[in-house]
Amino acid sequence: MPGPKPQPVQHLADYRPYPFTLSGTHLDVTLAPRGTIVRARLELVPGALPVDLVLDGGRGLDLRALTIDGHAPDPAHIRRDDETLTIAAAALPSAPFALETEVAIDPQDNTAFEGLYLSGGIFCTQCEAEGFRHITFYPDRPDVMTTFRVIIRSDMPVLLSNGNPVRQEPGLAEWHDPWPKPAYLFALVAGDLVAVSDRFTTRSGRDVALNVWVRPGDQDRAGFAMESLIKSMRWDEDVYGREYDLDVFNIVAVDDFNMGAMENKGLNIFNSKLVLASPDTATDTDYERIEAVIAHEYFHNWTGNRITCRDWFQLCLKEGLTVFRDQQFTSDLRSAAVKRIEDVQTLRARQFREDQGPLAHPPRPDRYEEINNFYTATVYEKGAEVIGMLKRLVGDEGYARALDLYFDRHDGDAATIEDWLLVFEDATGRDLSQFKRWYTDAGTPMLTMEEAWQDGTLTLTFAQSTPPTPGQPAKPARVIPIAVGLIGPNGDEVAPTRVLEMTEAQQSFAFEGLGARPVASVLRGFSAPVMLRRQMDDATRAFLLAHDTDPFARWEAGRELALSALTDLSQGRDAGADYITAIGALAADDAADPAFRALCLTLPGEEEIATRLASLGVTPDPDAIHAARDDLARRIAVAHQDLLARLFDDMAVTGPYSPDAQAAAGRSLRIAALGLLGRIDGGDRAEVLFGIAGNMTERMAALAVLLRLGRGEAALRILHDEFGDNRLVMDKWFSVQVMAAPPDQAVAVARRLAGRKDFDWKNPNRFRALLGGLAANHAGFHAADGSGYAFTADWLMRMDAANPQIAARMSTAFETWPRYDATRRGHAQAALEQIGILEGLSRNTREMISRMIA
Ligand code: PHE
Ligand code: ZN
């Protein structure tokens, strides 16, 4: 079939500095839904040699005027194409000059939500990665940094931009951002907004006004976001010594947003689902996520804004580090053990999955067609893991010294991964040339371990290998920090955690002077993002689940038990007895953290089971996996009926709802018990709980149980009556129906919901609720008749015309298609090919499709 057309590829090796210096940007924006006028004045300093001035900006910009130092150049010196405007060197002064342009743009037509757009009557912008070029002609690249002065003209009551306010009068506001920044950090907001406000005094005495701006009526759901912001500001001072650097910090919530949130300097813009929360509308998971993302965006002020990226290949420089920092923040505020387990689960579900398929790429890619396709789990989550490994290798003190040096040396810079690694080398004296492979090589290393015991010495022998990934057939050995502890036969720890540094393809490490043969607890804290394979019988796993002192390793032992049972069951082999016994003992341990017990009681998802099978070279059968998981859950429920019923009752929280970690932990155990009990009580407990619960956490959990049993109709109606006009709750209402539908009904449910009037598909959250919900229903999406693929493909094609970023990102639902059976592969490939030949397909989706069917 004719594959998608080739398009221009960006290569890391082609990087060249911009030939002009930009010493100031002035914007004057007159807002109107149609015909917004943007006047820009760029103060440019030419380099030594005369060169053409190339600015980014395409056909969407209606150029009304252009002058150089006040004079219009000869039109023969100006060229435009679909993406740029070029002024010939001959028309440019050799001394510093001012380029002024006036363009008209149409925010109302902007359904891609990139550049300036309207969301529910609010004007807002999204410029990362390359959105500023849809606002005005500009050198839209992160290494061109300057100060901004911005005038906004509009009747809207609230007019915001980056930096500090310098003038506010009716119909006009002027902002000045003293910190040089690249255009991707520019933001502008205008709307009928109200603020929840507070103040923060920095360690050195700066008084900062804090505002969380929302639509009138939403103020009572913005308090938690504000609390989270204040905690983040304090934490970054305490832990990293980083202070805020402006007089105001504004956060704005909008309903239409392609991503979670955006770190624009002094003016963070958020998807409203990551700001608005009240106990009756948001779950514990929502609260935790809001806290983490508020922190993430705030932390970008230093890791991203004060120090930015030289080019987009370096994206993980800011994202990996900022994710790592927000993970540290959450572990400090909540349970470190639980947070680590959750992060590993996310990494495996999203990043290992990405690594296993045709979209695998290194944390620092060296080529791309559309940068928006690289805001991935590999860049973010694996980028954070790589920093965690660095910290483990150089120690906490070495890490602290390196970070101080990084902020000192690179403040104000647009930096690279090389800069970052050099800081660690200079601060610690360590050679990181081999470590750098973690940034440049794709794929999840497979680590196998063998044990030998002789005369009081335990020898662990590891071998590493990384499967081929697109463009990288063979990979040299990496540095792998392997944290190991030893547990004696009586359950006591006989050797505390020690980090082994593996640098060879195969390497042995000896533990000497041991009395009796211990059990090795390996990869503690998930010390490296690898897949560990070791020969271990279920009894030894159960022993570790009972005795390991490292909470991650302990949970992992249970996980391994569950996965081995599930992979066996899904291939028709009887299994699971040891797991059921061991998990019961752990769940009954009232001394253990309820959140930890909940995590242990929650079975791996079907997707994770499929990923495990594929890594073992077995073709996953989605229906068999679903049946195996159902079967194991039901057997756990039968075996531990009384215990689960007791936990469900004991963990009932009385008194007012609080989203804090401890209260949420109790609810998570309660919900885990409820889910299992639902397998045998016909959903009676869930029905009662749905009716009486005062919080969304328990109601959603109960609803999911009811839907799985096909008796969710009444609950759905009640929820709709209560919250039909609350978009965020209705997003949940859409997604849970598809996610919890029995697999053979999932596509039909999705199709019915897509036909509803309130399926406002152009809203990214609503679209993701439905299509993402289907993709999360593993056996439903991968229905053997191809209906899940076809349905998804239809919607991707429709979405692509409106919002290419969302279509391209959602296309990753297909990223694992090559691992399934021939029938499914045939259907998936046909669906992808159908998208690939669509007339006018965006660059975003075209790149994704061509990588997936390469
Ligand atoms: N930089 C944002 C973050 O990580 C994510 C983002 C990327 C938002 C692109 C919008 C567009 O917090
Ligand atoms: Zn980020």
UniProtKB/TrEMBL annotation:
GO BP annotations, alphabetical order: proteolysis
TM stretches of this protein: none
Domain Aminopeptidase N-like N-terminal: 121-185
Reactions mediated catalytically: Release of an N-terminal amino acid, Xaa-|-Yaa- from a peptide, amide or arylamide. Xaa is preferably Ala, but may be most amino acids including Pro (slow action). When a terminal hydrophobic residue is followed by a prolyl residue, the two may be released as an intact Xaa-Pro dipeptide
Pfam families to which the protein is assigned, alphabetical: DUF3458, DUF3458_C, Peptidase_M1, Peptidase_M1_N
NCBIfam families: pepN_proteo
Protein name: Aminopeptidase N
